[in-house]
Specification:
This protein is an alpha+beta fold and 805 residues long. The chain contains twelve helices and 37 strands.
Length: 805
């Protein structure tokens, strides 16, 4: 509000309220009702403040209230700020003495008796009142309530007076009388933006107000996407799939009790996600309209996103940097990139194309190739995006020598045997990655780094030579392991082993093992040389002593075996494996004694040359869910008994098949056939005959208790074997999806003939559980014989690691 100063007129700040104890004061800024100074000065300040307030109110304060301030008054409401009055400089009066100015403004009666004059005006003894602004006179004067003196208001402050220029304000005042040109009004039919929106929305509209558009997809419990009819399923499927995966409304669905603000925040996030997905798939001018319905009268809240993709942008120029430096390989590298001008823009395809190009460079002999990050420049006018990618091939190379950082631990020569490439062959990145994994698979290395090192640069069109520097971080060499198992046929079994995995470098291990069980005791030592003579080839030499007292037979033996094989492992599951070996076994054995009649043991000396070949087309070594397996073992053997030798061949074939049925069940089947050809059953040591029954055979029966029996009812073993099994591995979803239920049915038998006649087939059935772990499933099976013989148990329990087959 305006108050007079010696420079003209200024705008006073709004009234403010001061609170303190039981006293309330309303004061104007700059007017001190309680401070120091002479009585004249205090009275003058009060008069100036009151006059300024009144003038401000009369100059255009719309409805602002003014209050008289004095003494102790009841609490009054806080005053609203008065509208700001434009600041207009008034003519500057002639300079004069300040004291004279003040005296001229104060009436003589106030100078003679200030306190009496104040009381006569009604101020100080009356409560604060709301004062209505007095109308301005023609001369610009306004009367102050309570008999206060009238102050002249300069004509320059009249609301209808012209606005004067303001110092340091460079913007011209607007010309209020300026004539504005007429703006033509466009109808809805003539507005291009409205026409484009109608075209885009035409296919999304509802023909009768109730029937939805044809292109509608439910992407959540309360969320729907609606597309123009012209949008193909292929074009929208990628957006819908990724929206389902990332939608906030799907991860945090609408629930009863959610307020509109919460739902709106989630919906806004999903709308932003849809816009981002449309740009990813090339719809840079696309729009998404969000519609929220329901929520009243108990109706469920639902969201609909109307998709307005507009035109899909295409690739413009494609710049692959220095790719032409690859020479004759450049066309193949461009083909591997796969994108060209005119293709639809798709950020996922661009990322995949960059990955494919980088892989192709690595596979085609460019170890030092560098690919940068793709940059896309989108031109909305052309509806195209120009793609640039920095590609530096860096020259083509072939393999050179391998150098090890620990030559006495794992030499470069030994690492070359592990590698699947030879010097002089073109560089392939996947071969180097394979070598890195193979080094880790030895168990002797905790970490490794393979670094290519240029030996000879490319020149005259010939590739360069690159060697491999391999840095090795040694792993602990010693291992202590154990095993534990139980089944009703073999009883408890506990095993332990100690191993030095590199006692005889490179990869020459020495192992000491022992088994203590209710039916078997064993002690042995084993030497093994891994990657001997080639990748994944293992030489094993085993010497052990074993004492087994089973229901089927009893044997005390000392055996020596040497095997050379190509192995499969958890890290490298291979389709083809094979083994060959030699065995020498000296044993004292007898047939089982269920009858309780003890017979003497017979001495056998057996030599064998076992051969085995196997194919594994399954998807997992310990827990297969798809594929099939097959194996064949042929072992020519010679048995010495009672100073006579007997020659025969032991043949066994195995096959298994795995088929998923939906997402929750795997159907697994197994078959096994075996035959002893060349001699009578009594000429073969009991431990080398065929038996059936047990956890890996016909569950429900005792271990090796299915087969021919002698006159005393004791298991005798057979010359032929057949087994068939079927089981359903059903995922329960319990324990994080790790628990399976496995109903099973097994059948089979062993017979005295070379070929089975299937005239003494035994059946077993039951239920098992599997608990999946990182090292394979833990198996517990409970089986019962369906057609038991005398002496067979009514139930069998089997605990082991891995599936039954």
């Amino acid at each position: 509000m305006p108050v007079p100063t010696n420079q003209g007129w200024a705008v006073a700040l709004p009234l403010r309220r001061r609170m303190g104890g039981g006293r309330s004061e309303h004061a104007l800024p700059g007017v001190d009702l309680t401070g120091g100074g002479t009585g004249l000065h205090r009275l003058t300040r009060w008069l100036l403040g009151t006059a300024g307030l009144c003038l401000g109110l009369m100059a255009g304060a719309d409805g602002a209230a003014a209050q008289a301030v004095a003494g102790a008054v009841p609490a009054a409401p806080v005053l609203e700020a008065a509208p700001v009055v434009p600041v207009v400089p008034a003519p500057t009066p002639a300079p004069r003495n300040d004291e004279d100015e003040l005296r001229a403004l104060v009436p003589d009666s106030a100078m003679a008796a200030p306190e009496a004059w104040a009381r006569s005006t009604g101020v100080g003894d009356t409560p604060a009142q709301t004062v209505a602004p007095a109308p301005l006179s023609a001369e610009g004067a306004a009367a102050v309530p309570g008999g206060a003196p009238e102050l002249a208001v300069p004509a320059a402050l009249r609301p209808d007076s012209p606005l004067a220029d303001m110092p340091d304000f460079a913007v011209d005042w607007p010309a209020l009388a300026m004539a504005l040109p007429d703006v033509p009004q466009l109808s809805a039919q003539d507005d291009p933006a409205a026409q484009a929106m109608r075209t885009a929305m035409g296919d999304l509209s509802e023909s009768d107000g109730t029937r939805p558009a044809r292109q509608a997809t439910q992407v959540g419990r309360n969320v729907q996407l609606r597309w123009p009819d012209s949008q193909s399923r292929e074009e929208r499927m990628g957006i819908e799939i990724r929206f389902r995966q990332s939608s906030t409304l799907n991860t945090t669905p609408i629930r009863e009790g959610d307020d509109l603000a919460q739902i709106s925040v989630r919906a806004a996030a999903d709308r932003a996600l849809l816009l981002r997905l449309m740009r990813i798939y090339g719809y840079y001018d696309g729009e998404v309209i969000q519609n929220l319905s329901g929520g009243t009268n108990g109706a469920a809240i639902s969201l609909r996103f109307d998709m307005l993709p507009a035109d899909r942008f295409r690739l413009g120029a494609v710049d692959l940097g220095q790719i032409d430096a690859a020479g004759a390989d450049a066309p193949a590298l461009r083909a591997a990139f796969g994108l060209k001008s005119g293709d639809y823009l798709d950020s996922f395809r661009i990322v995949n194309a960059v990955t494919a190009l980088d892989r192709a460079l690595g596979q085609m002999g460019y170890p030092f190739a560098v690919t940068g990050k793709p940059a896309l420049s989108v031109d909305h006018a052309r509806a195209e995006g120009d793609l640039s990618l920095s590609v530096v091939p860096g020259g083509k190379y072939v393999y050179g020598p391998i150098t090890s950082s620990s030559p006495r631990y794992l030499s470069g020569r030994h690492l070359q045997k592990i590698a699947r490439f030879r010097p002089g062959q073109p560089w392939k990145r996947e071969d180097v990655d394979d070598l890195r994994r193979a080094i880790l698979a030895t168990g002797l290395v905790a970490n490794t780094a393979v670094t290519p090192k240029e030996i000879t640069p490319p020149r005259d069109g010939q590739p360069g030579v690159v060697g491999l520097d391999i840095a090795l971080t040694r792993a602990p060499r010693h291992t202590v392991s154990g095993e534990m198992g139980y089944d009703t046929g073999e009883g408890f079994r506990i095993g332990a082993a100690w191993e030095d995995r590199n006692l005889f470098p490179p990869e020459g291990s020495f192992r000491v093992r022992g088994v203590l069980g209710t039916e078997e005791q064993l002690a042995g030592i084993t030497f093994k040389r891994s990657n001997f003579g080639g990748r994944d080839r293992v030489l094993t030499v085993d010497l052990f002593a074993d004492n087994a007292t089973l229901d089927a037979y009893a044997a005390r033996k000392v055996a020596f075996a040497a095997t050379y094989e190509r192995q499969t492992t958890l890290l490298f599951q291979k389709p083809w494996t094979w083994s060959m070996g030699a065995e020498v076994q000296a044993s004292e054995e007898r047939e089982g004694v269920p009858s309780g009649i003890t017979k003497g043991r017979t001495f056998y000396l057996t030599t064998a040359l076992p051969l085995r070949g196997a194919f594994d087309g399954s998807n997992n070594l310990l827990d297969p869910a798809r594929g099939h397996r097959a194996a064949l073992r042929v072992s020519p053997e010679i048995s010495w008994r009672d100073d006579q030798n007997h020659q025969y061949v032991r043949i066994q074939g195995d096959a298994s098949w795995y088929q998923p049925l939906g997402d929750t069940m795997v159907l697994a089947m197994r078959a096994r056939m075996g035959s002893l050809v060349g001699t009578q059953i009594d000429n073969v040591a009991p431990s080398r005959r065929f038996y059936a029954g047990g956890g890996g055979s016909i569950r429900g029966y005792g271990y090796e208790l299915v087969g021919p029996r002698n006159a005393l009812g004791e298991p005798k073993g057979g010359r032929s074997l057949y087994e068939f099994s079927i089981e359903a591995r059903v995922n329960t979803g319990l324990f994080g999806g790790n628990l399976q239920l496995v109903p099973f049915l097994d059948m089979g038998g062993a017979e005295t003939g070379v070929l089975p006649r299937f005239d003494d087939t035994r059946f077993g059935a039951g239920l098992g559980i599997r608990y999946r772990t990182n090292f394979g499933p833990i198996r517990i099976d409970l089986g019962t014989p369906l057609n038991p013989r005398s002496g067979d148990s009514r139930i069998g329990v089997y605990v082991a690691l891995g599936q039954a087959f």
